Amino acid sequence: MISKSDNRAISKWRVIFFFMCLILMIFAARPLISADRIITRTAVESNNVYVGESFLMQITVMGSTDAKRPNLDGLEGFDVEFAGGSNNSSQSVSIVNGSFSRTVKKEYVFTYKLTPLRAGVLRIPSFTIEVGGKNLKTNALAINVGDPEETEDFKLRLRLSRKSCYVGEPVILSVVWYLRQDVNSFHVTAPFLENPDFDIEKPEVVIDKRKNYFRVPIGGEEFIALKSNGTLEGKNYTTLEFELALIPKRSGLFAISKFIVSCETGGGLGGDGFFDDFFSRGLRSRERKRKFVVPSNSPTLSVKELPEEGRPVDFSGYVGEYRISASASPTEVDVGDPITLIITLQGSDYMENLTLPPLGELEEFSKNFKIPSERAAGVVKDGKKIFTQTIRAKNHSVTRIPPIRFVSFDTAKERYFTVESDPIPITVNSTRTVTASDAEGLDRAPEGSVLEHWRDGIAYNYRGDAVMARMDYGFGSLMYHRWSILLIGFPPALFVILLVGSIVVRSRNADPLARRARGSGKILRRKLTVLVKEKNLKREVLCGRILEALKEYLGSKLRRAGSALTSEEIKNKLEKRGISPELIESLLSIIAVCEHGRYAGATAAGENDSGSLIDRTKDIAVRLDKKL
Amino acid sequence: MKFLNGRSIYRFNGYLSIKPAIFILAAAFMIISLNLCAAGLSTEEIRGDLAEAQKAFQKGLELETSSPKSARDYFRSSILHYRRMVEEGGVRNGRIYYNIGNAYFRLDDLGRAILNYKRAALYIPNDDNLRRNLEYARGRRKNKVEEKEREKIFKTLFFLHYDLPYSVKFLVFSISFALMWMTASLYIFVRSGRFKIVIIIFAIISAGFFTSLMVERINFTESPAGVIIDDETVARKGDAVTYQPSFTDPLCAGTEFKLIENRGAWWQIELVNGARCWIKSDAGETITE
Fold it and tell me: 3-state DSSP call for residue B270?
């Protein structure tokens, strides 16, 4: 029977089991839920800005990273600069109260830098963005754009090098920014640079190392600005000045639209300011950050049409005083062989857009030379524009490369003038050069094409168990390889063993007497032991052998011939070695007994017990061995 | 263990006749095994992933012309299987990174392709296919960053340091080191002037290669190499978006760099031309995982 309380226990465990299953199901389903939701969101750094004040706009795609950059062509009233895309995906695993959860966040962010070009409420419309093959819409936004105002501390002035010019004649526009405060960062907007009626060139800036220069980015271009001091309306300012060359394409009266500079001031003593090396660091105050947006003046330029009177038919619209020269190589060729013609034009500071005079339209060129339809682009170098063109003589009667004409309008003299290069004499041979392969009787070798590697494309994938191997790299993994250990560890160890061994052997061989001395005690004891075992020895024989062994021992120890040692000599030597007189006396007494026994034989007086004599000798030998 | 008015629950023969401790352990095991079984894939699972990866890649190749979108899905699937082998199976070798690089290349993800080729080069630096694919991928980058002159001169002067793979340098070092000591061992017995010269030569070689190995190791750990993986990222002069861009154009996927400083969300990097700039840390990856 199951009681009520037991039933409650079962129910409780059922509930626990149910919730655990539920948790597992939620856990398993979570990646599927998060993977399906894709959301786009447009956000801006600020909704209230001035004309010319840049701000960031981010289009975020949440739930996928497979998004293509949206097309922002419908965005009117803004200068748009793409500031990069970034993958903000992340994955995390967390354990809360024993429950595991995995969070997968997929996100891709497109960042743009927008600069309003006019005042009013400007609308950022909804854009279409392709995400994983689907088209999604972003949210629209409205931006309040105010008109910028000049302040006492910041002024921007545009000055033209002249008020009127001819079409195609360069006019220098100086942009001067007057400042009386430190700035952290700034941004210059110049919609005029997009004006289709003008070509904009950057005049070459000769850098004076004693002066300070800064790079000023404007709409993807970068201008070099000079920092100096100046006066405006009676007040002193620090100035930042750079120049542009305006080359008008058509006549008329043009107002140079306002340049706008937005800058940020203040922000404490930090060293991150843009002008940290521009203004003194010590003057930076702890004032709060402020933003200024300053407009420039808008000067006008009158552009005159070039006069019709006296205009040559081959005038291409270039203004200025030019010089032209030409060179050719080689000057002796066969019909149809290429001749490299180099044409050099110089005279104007702005020749980027200058094109090669159309050689094909010159009569003598078109009659005598093959000229490629593609015209060389030309390279500007050292104030010259150099065109390289390949031409081929059509027949052997051609004797020169004709002069090349270039027509321009000189604004100083207000007239057209033509310059010509010098003609280049050339020799054109009609016959073909005879080579060995043309000689009769020689077989032509079969010509095959050389097999070359096709460089495009990537190689195949690897397969098999090698792809599953677990490998290591780097010094550590190589170092602990068994072959490495063997190569690096064994030879030094071998060297050390051999070196120690050789030192030992050599030291032994260097002093054989010492070696003999070290082993002499052992030899003596061995000889005495043999004597103990040999029974029934005659006394004279026994004494003689003890004496012989003892003298041999002393001879080894004292580095002398043992047989030649006398008692007196032994005494002196041992005393010098610091042996006690009592021990010397004992030794000498044994020697005396042995000598007596040896020569007097059985009739000799003294110790009759041979065992006692041997023991005494042994005892003395042991005591001597410790001292010597 | 006492539960519910002092009765032991395992007395019952009903629905719940097991010890609660065992039940909890079993449930915990289920959860942990569901979540963490991937932490150590079995050989069979790795083999299965490899087969799936190869199959998906092959399928992608077959459909690349007729159905490019499906082909891309297959290439992505192939990458997922390979990545699982690496991340959850602990399989790391040159060939798997090479295959991953190839799959990313097919997806036009040049940044990750170059990144994985470079990872493969850590293990199989002498592989011809790898070298060619890496060079080809590098050639397709939008950014052309010229190597700095000083680096070119160093590469000419110390060509052995730059041109030889790490393993070859280690082999040369090991052999010259071993020969130096073995000749020194011989010199103990045969005091010949020739042996002395041979010892000095081997000592110079092994010292040179050891220095090269150490320099490479320090560079590898102090300034790990990396690759830009975002399509385009604006490199800045400081570690915030308010800093001015460092270059007129954004850095494109596949641009290689050395990581100089890591400030969490921002990295200071050095390009091969020596220019230093800051990028968001999620715009690039280092080749060491």
Answer: strand
CA distance A542 to A550: 12
Residue-wise pLDDT for A373-415, tens only, equals 766 677 787 778 888 888 888 888 888 898 888 888 888 888 8
Most A CBs within 10 Å, among B29, B188, B199, to test the A interface: B188
Q: B102 and A461 in contact by Cβ < 8 A?
A: yes
Task: Give A-chain residues touching B282 at CB under 8 angstroms.
Answer: 86-88
Shortest Cα–Cα distance, B36 to chain A (Å): 10
CA-based nearest distance A132→chain B, Å: 10
CA A342 remoteness from chain centre: 40
Is the Cβ pair B93, A466 closer than 8 Å?
Answer: yes
Angle at A495 between CA A490 and CA A497, to 5 degrees: 95
CB-count burial class (<10 Å; 0-12, 13-18, 19+) for A72: middle
Residues in chain B with CB shorter than 8 Å from the CB of A185 are 242-244
Q: A105 — alpha (psi -120 to 50), left (phi > 0) or beta?
A: beta
- Distances in Å between the Cα of A453 and the Cα atoms of A70, B98, B102, B106, B131 are 40, 21, 20, 21, 14
Q: Hey, are the CB atoms on A84 and B94 less than 8 Å from each other?
A: no
Residue of A nearest to B252 (CA): A84
pLDDT at A217: 83
Which H or E element spans position A506? helix A482-510
Tell me if B220 and A474 make a contact (CB, 8 A cut-off). Answer: yes
CA atoms of B285 and B289, how far apart (whole Å):
9
Strand partners, A428: A333
Give A-chain residues touching B230 at CB under 8 angstroms.
Answer: 84-87
Tokens of A27: 């856990």
Domains of chain A by residue range: 39-146, 154-304, 323-429, 512-627
pLDDT score at A36: 53
Q: Do B136 and A24 touch (CB under 8 A)?
A: no
What's residue B177's pLDDT? 94
Q: May I ask the CATH architecture of the domain A323-429?
A: Sandwich (2.60)
Report d(CA B203, CA B196) in Å as an integer.
Answer: 10
Using the beta-carbon criterion (under 8 Å), do B230 and A87 form an inter-chain contact? Answer: yes
State whether B174 and A487 contact (CB < 8 Å): yes
Question: Of B109, B162, B151, whose CA–CA distance to B275 is shortest?
Answer: B151
Residue B216: which residues within 8 A CB-CB, separation 6 or more?
Answer: B161, B166, B169
Handedness of CA B164, B167, B168, B171 (dihedral sign): positive
Q: Which residues in chain B are contacts of A460 at CB distance < 8 A?
A: 129
What CATH number does the domain located at A39-146 have? 2.60.40.740
Q: Give phi and psi for A560, each to the nearest 5.
A: -135, 170
Per-residue model confidence (pLDDT) at position A522: 86
Nearest-CB residue to B174 (from A5, A470, A484): A484
**Nearest-by-CA chain B residue for A501:** B188
Nearest residue in chain B measured CA to CA from A88: B282
Mean predicted confidence (pLDDT) in A58-78:
85
Given the cut 0.90, state whether the ipTM is greater than it.
no
Note whether A39-146 and A154-304 share their fold: yes
Bin A252: left if φ > 0, else alpha if -120 < ψ < 50, else beta. Answer: left
Is 2.60.40 the CATH number for A154-304? yes
Q: For residue B118, what pLDDT is reported? A: 94
Please report which residue ranges of B14-67 form alpha helices under DSSP H.
20-36, 43-63
Q: What type of residue is B144?
A: K
Closest alpha carbon within chain B to A217: B248
Yes or no, beta carbons of B136 and A455 under 8 Å apart: yes
